[in-house]
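Q: I have 126 residues here and want to know how they pack in 3D. Can you give me a structure?
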Amino acid sequence: MTGHAFGDLIYTYDAAAGEALGKRESHTPKIEAPAQVKPDELFSLKVSVGPHPNTVEHSIRWIMIMFEEEGRAFNPVFLGKVSFNPVTTQPDIILSVKLPKSGVIHALEYCNLHGLWAGKREIKVQ
């Protein structure tokens, strides 16, 4: 038993070290969204991973998206999760989202060989 805190098992672009350094570009979720939106205005949020292999032996299996809302007592708010079938589906998703307050979008992805990777993007609501 290793005794790591769960958060210690999640790689990020800035916190990757050792062997994980060479995996940052192909594993960190890329979040595309406006920097600023109006309250409850619908916008497109795209999350992608790669370029990355897409084989049964090595692929991105899922992406989960959460929102850390400014001032909320209990975070994060779950926005969605998509599972991918190796070979036939690519790790690219688009969600239609509306936010009541500013905060940070967090994307978590799982590679069957290289574990959990997280990315984030701040969005201002004004």
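Q: Anything worth noting?
A: The first strand starts at residue 10 and ends at 12. Residues 42 and 97 are 5 Å apart (CA to CA).
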